[in-house]
Each structure stands twice: as structure tokens, then as C-alpha cells.
């Protein structure tokens, strides 16, 4: 929220010049929308963590236990079906959050585009560079949208895909200098099913680099003491960073739900028709072999995410 507040102060200074209609009131509305979005993001992380913990401590051990009677077998099915039903409701909330985040990205980038248009009309040097930056940010928004939608439709992600999303989320939670050292090739899975998603990730990283180059080019063309170009630099950086951060987090959430749903479906089919599905589901194998699954680690990561978002930011206007 500090970055939004910093931009608000810069826009207030520009509004005092009386060069155009006020910007700050529009920005304040975007700030409120972003605050609501982050709060729902935090809540979603908590919901997902709770479901994963229940899966690891209740559902999975129960499913792995040998059923001595038909009653105990029916209990397994009942618990699993109930868990899947409630989880599906929570997953729907995450998909709704993703939709709202994409709408916010569009509104945020639209505001930035209008401001860049205003800035390009007020500067004597570098208007072409500002227009180029505006286009690259629009390209970035489009790539983020495509990737979120694709991850939302991915029905059977494997461990590699889930791990990849975790790596991206962790990388984008660090400082920008650390993020820059993370190359796409280092984490690219080699599975055929991942090919489409892989290309989208590659395109996103390429566009992100193009945005960074356009930002640098625009900055060197202008005086750092000019209020308009200073605000433009701060705002464009914020827009780029927030779109990327939202994508990494939301894609992570969506893939976790898909992986959990897929594992639950495998266990359900295995319990219902053991003869037709003789192979023990991977989640149960992992539990029996090591005592825990990747979901326990994911739940811990989500708890860290929740703790990293300070609730005090949402108690004051």
C-alpha cells in the first residue's frame, strides 16, 4: 500500500498545477480496489492452507487406512466426497478472485495509459518512448490475463507444474534484483502437457524484460526533477510489479486447487473401484513412504503468505 500512497502524493502535486482534470481521486479509488483485492487474496491463502492441512491430517490418512468393514469404507467415501464438495466451493471463490484481479489489472493499466498520454503531451523529449512504454505495459497485461486463464483451466497439473508455480511465487516475493536472476529456462518443465503453459510463461518473461527496457529508456529521456515524469516512472513500475505479482500468486492458487482436486478424484476412483484402479494413488504413496506430502509444505508457504500481509493496512482508510 505504501507504493500506492507514494504515487497519490505525486499525483496530488500534479493536480495542484491545474494542467488537467484531477488524477488523485481516480487513483484513490484504484487504491481502495487494490486494498480489497489484497485482503481477499490473504483470505484465499488462508482458506487454501486450511483445506490442505485437513487433507494431509484427516482425509489422506483415513483414505490410506485399511478398511476392515464396509462401514469404515463408506465412511472414507463420505468424508472424501464432503471434502471435495467444500473444496470446490472454496476453489470457486479463488476463480472469482482471479476474475476480479484481471479486471483490476485492466483498470490500473488503463489509468496508467491515460497518464502516460498526458505526460507525453507535456514533455519536450521522449514522447515516443512514453508511447512505447504504454504499449509494452498493455502487452504485459494481456500476457498476464492469458496465463491466469490458462492456469485456471489446467485440470491435471503434475508435481513439476505445482513446484514451478511455487518457485515463481517465491521469486517474485523477493527483491527485484533477486527476481532478475531467475531465468525461465532454469525452471521450465519438459512435459508435453505443459507445452502451452510453458510458452505463455516464456512470453510473459520476455514481455517483462521488454517493459523493463522501455522503462529505462523513458527514464533517461527526462529530467528526474520533473514532477510529471517522476510520477510516470513510479506509476509504471508499480503497475508492472503489481500485475506480475498478482499473476504469480493467483496462478499458484489455481494450480494448487487443480492439483488437490485431481488427487482427490484419483483417490475416490481408487476407493470406489479398486479392481479397475489397482495402482495406489500418488498422494497416498507419498504419505505412506515419507509421512507427508508436498501439500504440507504448500500449506506452510501459504501461512507465510498470510503472515506477510499486515492486517493493519486494512483497518485504516
Could you characterize what this model shows?
Helices cover 80% and strands 0% of the residues. Residues 175-188 have low confidence and may be disordered. It has a single domain (2-314), classed as Hemolysin E, Chain: A (Up-down Bundle). The chain has helices at residues 2-15, 24-64, 70-122, 127-153, 159-172, 176-180, 184-187, 195-220, 227-272, 282-290, 294-308. With 317 residues, it is mainly alpha-helical.
Please give a handful of descriptors for the protein shown.
mainly alpha; 11 helices; single chain; 80% helix; 317 residues; Hemolysin E, Chain: A
The count of DSSP E runs of length 2 or more, i.e. the number of strands, is 0
Strand content: under 5%
CATH topology: Hemolysin E, Chain: A
First CA to last CA: what distance? 11 Å
Shape: elongated
State the low-pLDDT regions, or none: 175-188
Task: Output the helix-strand order.
Answer: HHHHHHHHHHH
Helix count, DSSP H or I runs of 4 or more residues: 11
Q: Domains counted in the coordinates: how many? A: 1
Helix content: over 70%
CATH architecture descriptor name: Up-down Bundle
* CATH class division: Mainly Alpha
Q: What composes the largest sheet?
A: none
**Structural class by sheet pairing and helices:** mainly alpha
Mean pLDDT across the residues is 83
Radius of gyration: 23 Å
Amino acid at each position: 500500500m505504501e507504493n500506492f500512497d507514494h504515487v497519490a502524493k505525486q499525483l496530488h502535486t500534479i493536480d495542484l498545477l491545474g494542467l488537467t482534470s484531477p488524477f488523485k481521486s481516480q487513483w484513490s479509488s484504484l487504491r481502495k480496489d487494490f486494498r480489497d483485492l489484497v485482503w481477499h487474496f490473504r483470505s484465499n491463502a488462508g482458506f487454501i492452507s486450511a483445506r490442505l492441512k485437513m487433507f494431509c491430517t484427516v482425509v489422506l490418512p483415513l483414505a490410506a487406512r485399511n478398511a476392515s468393514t464396509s462401514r469404515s469404507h463408506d465412511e472414507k467415501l463420505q468424508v472424501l466426497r464432503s471434502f471435495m464438495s467444500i473444496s470446490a466451493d472454496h476453489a470457486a471463490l479463488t476463480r472469482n478472485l482471479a476474475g476480479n484481479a484481471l479486471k483490476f489489472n485492466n483498470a490500473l493499466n488503463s489509468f496508467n495509459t491515460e497518464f502516460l498520454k498526458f505526460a507525453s503531451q507535456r514533455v519536450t523529449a521522449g514522447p515516443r518512448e512514453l508511447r512505447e512504454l504504454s504499449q509494452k505495459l498493455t502487452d504485459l497485461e494481456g500476457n498476464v490475463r492469458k496465463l491466469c486463464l490458462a492456469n485456471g483451466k489446467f485440470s491435471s497439473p503434475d508435481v513439476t507444474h505445482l513446484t514451478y508455480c511455487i518457485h515463481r511465487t517465491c521469486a517474485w516475493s523477493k527483491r527485484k534484483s533477486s527476481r532478475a536472476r531467475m531465468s525461465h529456462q532454469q525452471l521450465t518443465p519438459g512435459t508435453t502437457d505443459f507445452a502451452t503453459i510453458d510458452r505463455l510463461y516464456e512470453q510473459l518473461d520476455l514481455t517483462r524484460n521488454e517493459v523493463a527496457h522501455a522503462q529505462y529508456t523513458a527514464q533517461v529521456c527526462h529530467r528526474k526533477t520533473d514532477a510529471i515524469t517522476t510520477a510516470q516512472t513510479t506509476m509504471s513500475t508499480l503497475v508492472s510489479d503489481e500485475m506480475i505479482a498478482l499473476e504469480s500468486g493467483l496462478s499458484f492458487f489455481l494450480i494448487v486447487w487443480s492439483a488437490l482436486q485431481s488427487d482427490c478424484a484419483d483417490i475416490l476412483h481408487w476407493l470406489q473401484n479398486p479392481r479397475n484402479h489397482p495402482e495406489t494413488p500418488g498422494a497416498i504413496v507419498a504419505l505412506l513412504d515419507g509421512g507427508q506430502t508436498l501439500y504440507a509444505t504448500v500449506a506452510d508457504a501459504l501461512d507465510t503468505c498470510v503472515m506477510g500481509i499486515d492486517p493493519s493496512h486494512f483497518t485504516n482508510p
